[in-house]
Structures are given as C-alpha cells and as structure tokens.
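Please, structure for the following, as tokens.
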Amino acid sequence: MEIRQITASETWEIRQQVMWPDQPLSYVILPDDDHGMHFGLFLNARLISVASIFITENQAQLRKFATKREYQQKGYGTALLQYIIDQITKKGTEKIWCNARKMKSNFYENFGFTYTDKEFQKGKIPYVIMEKRL
C-alpha cells in the first residue's frame, strides 16, 4: 500500500464510479480542483481510494473522498483519511470538515468528527456537515 499526492484528474474516475455513477464524469470535476491537494491510495500500483483537501486559512475541507466499492470496508479509506489528517496537522491546520453523506457519517465519527446542525440534500442523498478540531 502506498499513499501519495496525485493530480486532480487522477481522482475523477473513482469519484464518478463511486459517488455519482449515474452522472457524467464532468459532474465530479470541481471548479476549484486546481486549488486543492489530492491524495490517492495505491494497492499493488493500482489507485483504489482518493480524497481531496481544500485549505482556507486554518481550516481544511475534505471533499470527494471515495474508495472503489470492492475495496471498501477493508481499512483503505481509514488509512487514507488518517494520512491526510496527519499531513494537514503538520501544516498547522486547526480544523477539518466535510459534507458527509448521512449513511456514511458513522465512519467520520470514528475519527472524532462531530455533527453540526447544518444538513442539506443533493439529489436524493441527505448530507450533514461534520467537523473535527485538530
């Protein structure tokens, strides 16, 4: 297993396959992708998990965190998120937050993220904003 920084375009295929398989690839390309840091977890040189971080002042937003379905529930996403938290903590980031799909929110709870009172829906998917002080 290897985790390293990657380009935004390297994240797009997994983002689309995992998060929005019924949408075109263009749906998962963020207008500010060029301003983010993108990370990938590789298993046997194959990219299987991706996440993007956007830092503003002392806060980091985790976006488009996705692990290929056949590799979910095996600890790869956990390893990637822990790596990212370690990296941004070294940079002096004070808080990380994300728009968590409600059905995945317990994953973030395991990392010490807490719920905010901000919720919304995108398409048919309910989200809650979660955050963690670093």
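The first helix runs from residue 8 to 19. The radius of gyration is 14 Å.
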